Amino acid sequence: MRLVLDSNEYLFAFGFAKKPASIVLMDLIVTRQALLTIRIPRLIIEEIRRNLPGDIFREVIAFIQRLTHIDEDFLIPFELGSKYELAGLKSADALIAAYAKWVRADWPVTENRHFLSRHKTLPFRVLTAEQCVKFIRSS
Asked: Contact at 8 Å (CB) between 41 and 71?
């Protein structure tokens, strides 16, 4: 199962504003490594860095480096990002959607309301952490 996690999943699992589903998702990523492939674009790292203090950011980076493949943003085809921006996504969300398509992700996982409200125009289903946890547990 190939997942692309949005920065808010890491922020809600490791940051000050905790969300139980995001915490459980991170635990499942650790315990079900053989079942899951996690990929993220560099943009996600930058968003996490901007929103967490240094000591917590280092903890998140250690977690990410152990369990995640990070791709540079410039590798993502520009045309894909433009396509999703024209479909109404904000530029950062368009990049994540383009990335998910480019890496053939089964699901992007996010709590971003704007992204979730636009997912019907995307060629893949977007899950919240809670939905993703349920799906992983049922697999």
From this structure: yes
Domain with residue 55: its CATH number is 3.40.50.1010
Residue range of the domain that includes 127:
2-138
Q: How many helices (H) and strands (E) does the chain have?
A: 8, 4
pTM of the complete model:
0.92
Element (DSSP H or E) covering residue 14: helix 7-14
Task: Tally the domains of the chain.
Answer: 1
Contact 12, 129 (CB under 8 A): yes
pLDDT, mean of each 10-residue run, the chain (139 residues): 97 96 98 95 97 97 96 95 89 92 94 73 85 95
